[in-house]
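S.,

Sequence below, as promised.
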Amino acid sequence: MATINITANTFEDIITKNNIVIVDFWAEWCGPCQSFAPIYEQVSEQEEYKDIVFGKIDTESEQELGAHFQIRSIPTLMIFREQVVLFSQPGMMNASQLADVITKVRELDMKQVHAEIEKAAKS
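The prediction came back faster than expected:
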């Protein structure tokens, strides 16, 4: 799957209807964003990730989303699984680093993650 553009209008629908969503917060004027874009695109097209949505949010046109997620540096990569943010990191990464993060996200026991979130919410 190639990357898709995510807007404030499509964000919630994409996050709620897909198990794993990776979001690249970027801007056209950002040099590191432009350098990371082909890496992100290449990984998104790999067969083993066809079950993952790779989205891009342009922080210039979607300032509301950038503000909501307190994006202070771009590129910032954020990974959602079952509507939970499991990873958020500014800066570039290479394809193998991105693959490693995806593997770790897939290996997480989401029942345990949800239980910990519920426990934290009660205290």
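The CA atoms of residues 9 and 75 lie 21 Å apart.

Coffee later?
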